[in-house]
Design brief:
By secondary structure, the chain is an alpha/beta fold. 34% of the residues lie in helices and 17% in strands. Strand 1, helix 4 and strand 2 (57-61) form a beta-alpha-beta unit.
């Protein structure tokens, strides 16, 4: 069947019997190449579900080592991995989960000199970073390369997910926030804390959106920001529009080369500032679903 081995037919049988996946769709997954920027809280569930789904190649950009405090939420890593490079721990977990998946390791800090070369070979980019400089860099690189970017962020008890796809008429991150905030303006998860299970929910949503993009099925989160409040157990949706004045993907872009910002930690998409910023732009339609 479609060139599968017997083990693959059995492993992916629950996909193969789905009308919107089938053997053809599973082959698309096995041929797909996805880049995960970060192997932490968001990268962990995204990587594990994409690997389990049979995504053929998972690239991972990660330069950090496993810390004991990571284990509260970063399920790619185990207690015995403390002190090891996260990228090695992630590879071991993924290989143990599904030997069909090729893990491509990028143990580097992304910057303007390497990001375009790294993302070039991948179909979808998944962002799980927790700092603004990398977030802006990856966004700009994806716009320049015409790559879809599946974005997620978490803060305390709240999380958000969306798909930026400027190449197909959607907004990019800079459509909402043209420039990074000053260092120290937004507290990091290290300073403010984060509910351990929260990245599991948001990272799983990122995995779903990635799989949908690979399959070409369903309605993606392009132009929609999905917000999750764990304390209220509530999902809400904000419509976001492409900004014609965006400095990167607008009608008359002013940024045409990559910029390296000074590294600092921050929590992307803090809930109240995000809502206020979007409201001020008058680009939001809020639809609550309970």
């Amino acid at each position: 069947m479609f060139g599968f081995t017997n083990d693959q037919i059995y492993r992916y049988s629950r996909h193969i019997i789905l009308p919107d996946v089938g053997g053809v769709g599973q082959k698309k997954l096995l041929r797909a190449k996805v880049l995960l920027v970060g192997a932490g809280g968001l990268g962990s569930p995204a990587a594990m579900y994409l690997a389990a789904a049979g995504v053929g190649a998972l690239g991972i950009v990660e330069f950090d080592t496993v810390d004991l405090s990571n284990l509260q939420r970063q399920l790619l890593h185990r207690t015995q991995d403390v002190g090891r490079p996260k990228i090695d721990s992630a590879q071991d977990t993924i290989n143990a989960l599904n030997p069909d998946v090729k893990v491509v390791k990028h143990p580097v800090v992304l910057d303007s000199t390497n990001v375009m070369d790294i993302i070039a070979d991948y179909d979808v980019i998944v962002n799980g970073t927790d700092n603004f400089p990398t977030r802006y860099l990856v966004n700009d690189a994806c716009v320049f390369a015409g790559k879809p970017l599946v974005d997620g962020s978490i803060f305390m008890f709240e999380g958000q997910a969306t798909v930026y796809d400027a190449a197909h008429g959607g907004p990019c991150y800079r459509c909402l926030f043209p420039t990074p905030p000053p260092p120290g303006e937004v507290p990091s998860c290290q300073e403010a804390g984060v509910l351990g299970v929260l990245p599991g929910i948001i990272g799983s949503i990122q995995a779903i959106e990635t799989i949908k993009l690979i399959l070409g099925k369903g309605d993606s989160l392009k132009g929609r920001l999905l917000l999750f409040d764990a304390l209220a157990m509530e999902f809400r949706e904000m419509r976001i529009q492409k900004n014609p004045d965006c400095p990167v993907c607008g009608d008359h872009p002013t940024l045409t080369t990559l910029i390296d910002y000074e590294q600092f930690c921050g929590a992307p998409f803090p809930s109240n500032p995000l809502k206020q910023a979007l409201k001020e732009k008058e680009t939001v339609e809020v639809a609550s679903s309970r």
